[in-house]
């Protein structure tokens, strides 16, 4: 869940900066980039972790992430639990050699022409090789975004070429992530309202709908064989 806005964190104390050349360099990079534009992947790697945790990188622009609601956080945890169980079975059956499930972890979508780093709410990915240290889109098996009113435009909204806006859904498709879920919460944030399953089409760059489940109308919250067998009941997602 992400909200774009001008955000200028207070500068660290000069004494603290002088003690840490790395912190000073990171602070200078952010200042030089104007906080919103021109940030490269190399710069991102040197920005303090606490700052990156509250931001994403959208085509070289720093985008502040809004903290999820209590309902949002509960659902992300519950989804991670059931997806981890399903992923474990897939590995045991030999469908995938190794899978990991995490919440709120950075994935690098691309580096050029302008670096983009996003953070899905829940992520299933192939285990990294020994020489790999960062998650890239190529590792991702399934990306999940939990959508609320404030994040709908950023997560799933209509792209606007005139302003350069691209939704995260568009960017995930462009980067080659094959499977994408959209989880929508009820207006009062009390429960999951629906789950949409999307899959990358034959031509890279666009998702097509695969499945849809709605609370009160469908027996299951999710029942699919892609990207591996997953069965989720509505009670699994209660909080």
Description of the structure:
It is a single chain. This protein is an alpha+beta fold and 239 residues long. The chain folds into 2 domains: 14-64, no CATH class; 70-237, tt1808, chain A (Alpha-Beta Complex). Helix content is 27%, strand content 28%. The chain has 7 helices and 12 strands. The chain has helices at 14-19, 21-32, 41-46, 49-53, 70-92, 152-156, 168-174, and strands at 55-58, 61-64, 99-103, 107-110, 116-118, 122-126, 140-147, 179-185, 192-200, 207-214, 220-224, 230-233. β8 (179-185) and β9 form a beta hairpin. The protein is globular, with a radius of gyration of 19 Å. Residues 3-9 and 11-15 have low confidence and may be disordered.
Assign an overall shape: globular
N/C terminus separation: 19 Å
Largest sheet: 6 strands, mixed
Total strand segments: 12
- Which class best fits the helix and strand makeup? alpha+beta
* Text of the CATH class of the largest domain: Alpha Beta
Q: Architecture of the largest domain in CATH?
A: Alpha-Beta Complex
SSE sequence, one letter per element = HHHHEEHEEEEEHHEEEEE
* CATH topology title of the largest domain: tt1808, chain A
Average of pLDDT: 83
